[in-house]
Design goal:
mainly beta, six-stranded antiparallel β-barrel, Elongation Factor Tu (Ef-tu), domain 3, 13 strands, 207 residues
Length: 207
């Protein structure tokens, strides 16, 4: 479990196909992240990478390695090539929940329609596909590339919705969101509470 509060920016330095799995197999990522690992970090730890929960399979002095399945690669962006990634350790019992409840299970991808400065902040607009649009709500929470954000506007359309988000300078500075531009795809995880509400209301309607 995570909070969507990014604690470091790492860099994928190597993407290696997993042995014996062929073109449809997964990959191993080597991630350079000096100072990110904790003193008690170990094999098997969960780390969110661009919002996707991954398991540490190797530790290095300046980073770590994870294996990413083909299913995860098909559902996400930014995990199949070298580049900067947002990183967050899994929550510990007693940690503060500064963002919102994040599972690290990416629901799909969406497309940035605009990213531009507005005063001292940045305005981010994202077109969310139909299958995820129903989870978007004004003043609700959404995770974008592993970052917990508040939805400031929702405009429904025929093929989904467009959400508006205001980013403060600090968020832009300490995450990979600074590199966004129109047309770029991002990882989206919907609010867990919204998902449970849909399930409960669906069961009530069925009975």
């Amino acid at each position: 479990m995570f909070t969507g509060i990014v604690t470091a920016i790492g860099r994928i330095t190597e993407v290696t196909p997993l042995v014996g799995q062929g073109e449809e197999g997964g990959v191993r990522l080597a991630i350079h992240a000096p100072g990110f690992l904790r003193a008690d970090s170990k094999l098997g730890d969960s780390i969110a990478i661009q919002g996707a929960c991954m398991t540490v399979v190797a530790l290095q002095d300046d980073g770590f390695q994870v294996d990413v399945s083909r299913e995860s690669l098909n559902r996400t962006v930014g995990l199949d090539q070298p580049g900067e990634v947002n990183l967050e350790h899994a929550m510990r019992l007693g940690d503060t929940l500064d963002g919102h409840i994040v599972s690290g299970h990416v629901d799909g991808t969406a497309v940035v329609s605009a990213f531009e400065p507005v005063g001292e902040s940045w305005a981010l607009r994202i077109v969310v596909p139909q299958e995820l649009a129903r989870y978007m709500a004004y003043k609700g929470s959404v995770t974008v590339n592993g970052v917990s954000l508040t939805v400031n506007s929702v405009e429904d359309g025929n093929h989904g919705c467009e959400i508006g988000i205001n980013l403060i300078p600090h968020t832009v500075q300490v995450t990979t969101l600074k590199s966004l531009k129109a047309g770029v795809r991002v990882n989206i995880e919907v609010d867990m509470i919204a998902r449970y509400c849909e399930r409960l209301l669906g069961e009530r309607a069925a009975t």
